[in-house]
Design brief:
Distance between the termini: 77 Å
Shape: globular
Strand content: 15-25%
Structural class: alpha/beta
Number of helices: 13
Order of helices and strands: HEHEHEHEEHEHEHEHHEHEEEHHH
Largest sheet: 7 strands, mixed
Number of strands: 12
C-alpha cells in the first residue's frame, strides 16, 4: 500500500471511531462531559447507619441512575475542620454535585457557600445544612420526636401524668436534634416532669452515659420513670449508665435509627422503642437529586415538597415519614424491608426472647 493511501485509511478509521463514540451518547466511555462526579460526604463513623446503610444504598442508586458517574466518598469522623477540608478538596477536584450530611450545619455554611460560588450544587442529606443548598432530603424531624414522645407516654403507663423523665437530646448544633426535641416536647409538656435535660455533644454514646450517671446522682435511682433518648447511640449510653447504677427495673427508653444493637435491646426489654427511618427511600431520593443536580437538571421532578432554609431561601425537598418500632412490629418493619434478618437480630442469647416476640 502506498504511504498516502495508508495515511488516508488511518485517518478515515479514526474519524469512524470518533463518530461511533459520539453516536453512543452519554455513558459511552471516554466522554468526560457526560461522566459526572458526585461527592458523598458523611459526618461520622460512630453512628452505624451512615456507612452500613446510607452509603451503600446511595452509591448503588447513583450507579443505577448514572452508570458512568464517579463517586467520591469522604467521612469527617465527627470533625468540622475535617469536613471543611473535604469539601474544599472536592471543590478543587471539580465535582459536579455534592450530597452532604453536615457535621455542624452552621460551621459548614461557609463551605457550602464556596461550593455554590464554584457552581457546584449541594444537596443536604438528612440534616438541613446552612448556606445556599440546592435541595434537601430528610424525614420529618418533628414527627420523629412526636413518635418518641407518644411511645414514652404509652410505656410509662400510670406514671405518664405524674412521672419524671430524663431528656437525652442530640447535639444542639444539628438542626435535626432541635426538630426532634420540639416534636417530643409538643407531646410531653404538661404530661411529665422533666427532671434533667441534656444536649449531647456530637451525639456521643459516652457523653450520654456520663450525663445519665449525673442525672441518677441528682434525681435518685428510683425517681426516673422514663428516658427520652433522641437516637439509639444515646439510648445505649443511657441504658449502660442505668445498669451500672443498679437501676432496676429499667425505665422505658426511646431511640432512633433502628440500629441492630437497638433492636436487640428492644427484644431483651432494655430499650422500649426506636424510630425507623426507612433508609432505602431516603438514599434513593438523595441519589436522584444528586444525579439530577450533577447533570444540571431541575430537581422539581424528584422533589415534590419545599423547605425554607435559615437564610429564607426556598429549595426543593423530599420529606419522608418515619415509623415507630417496638417489639411487636419488628418483623413487619425492618425485617420485612430487608434491613436485617431475624438471624441477625436474634443472637443465641436472645433465642427465648425472640420466640416470645414471634421472631423465629
Amino acid at each position: 500500500m502506498k504511504a498516502w493511501t495508508r495515511d488516508a485509511a488511518i485517518t478515515m478509521t479514526a474519524v469512524s471511531v470518533a463518530l461511533a463514540l459520539a453516536a453512543c451518547g452519554p455513558g459511552a466511555g471516554g466522554d468526560d462531559t457526560n461522566s459526572p462526579t458526585i461527592g458523598v460526604l458523611l459526618p461520622d463513623a460512630a453512628t452505624a447507619r451512615w456507612e452500613t446503610q446510607d452509603r451503600p444504598l446511595i452509591e448503588r442508586k447513583i450507579k443505577e441512575l448514572c452508570g458512568n458517574c464517579t463517586i467520591e466518598h469522604a467521612n469527617a469522623k465527627n470533625d468540622v475542620a475535617t469536613q471543611q477540608q473535604q469539601v474544599d478538596a472536592m471543590i478543587t477536584e471539580g465535582v459536579d454535585a455534592m450530597l452532604l450530611v453536615a457535621v455542624d450545619a452552621t460551621s459548614l455554611s461557609s463551605a457550602v457557600q464556596e461550593a455554590a460560588d464554584a457552581d457546584i450544587p449541594v444537596i443536604a442529606y438528612d440534616r438541613l445544612a446552612e448556606g445556599p443548598i440546592s435541595g434537601y432530603v430528610t424525614f420529618d424531624g418533628e414527627e420523629v420526636g412526636r413518635l418518641q414522645g407518644r411511645a414514652l407516654l404509652t410505656a410509662m403507663g400510670d406514671r405518664a401524668d405524674s412521672g419524671q423523665i430524663v431528656m437525652m437530646n442530640g447535639d444542639s448544633s444539628d438542626p435535626n436534634a432541635i426538630s426532634f426535641k420540639k416534636g417530643a416536647l409538643s407531646v410531653l409538656d404538661g404530661r411529665v416532669r422533666i427532671g434533667k435535660a441534656y444536649d449531647t455533644l456530637q451525639w456521643r454514646t459516652e457523653e450520654a452515659n456520663r450525663n445519665m450517671s449525673g442525672a441518677i446522682a441528682a434525681l435518685g435511682a428510683d425517681n426516673i420513670d422514663g428516658v427520652y433518648a433522641a437516637n439509639d447511640s444515646l439510648a445505649a449510653g443511657s441504658i449502660s449508665a442505668l445498669k451500672s447504677n443498679k437501676v432496676s427495673p429499667l425505665p422505658p427508653v426511646t431511640g432512633q435509627d433502628a440500629e441492630l444493637g437497638a433492636l436487640r435491646r428492644i427484644i431483651s426489654g432494655d430499650q422500649y422503642m426506636t424510630v425507623y427511618k426507612p433508609f432505602a427511600p431516603e438514599a434513593s431520593a438523595g441519589a436522584e437529586m444528586a444525579v439530577a443536580a450533577a447533570r444540571g437538571e431541575s430537581l422539581d421532578r424528584v422533589a415534590e415538597d419545599t423547605v425554607r432554609t435559615s437564610s429564607g431561601q426556598t429549595v426543593p425537598a423530599v420529606m419522608l415519614t418515619p415509623v415507630s418500632v417496638t417489639v411487636g412490629n419488628i418483623e413487619d418493619t425492618v425485617v420485612k424491608d430487608g434491613v436485617y434478618t431475624v438471624q441477625q437480630i436474634c443472637t443465641p442469647q436472645l433465642t427465648a426472647a425472640c420466640n416470645r416476640a414471634g421472631l423465629t
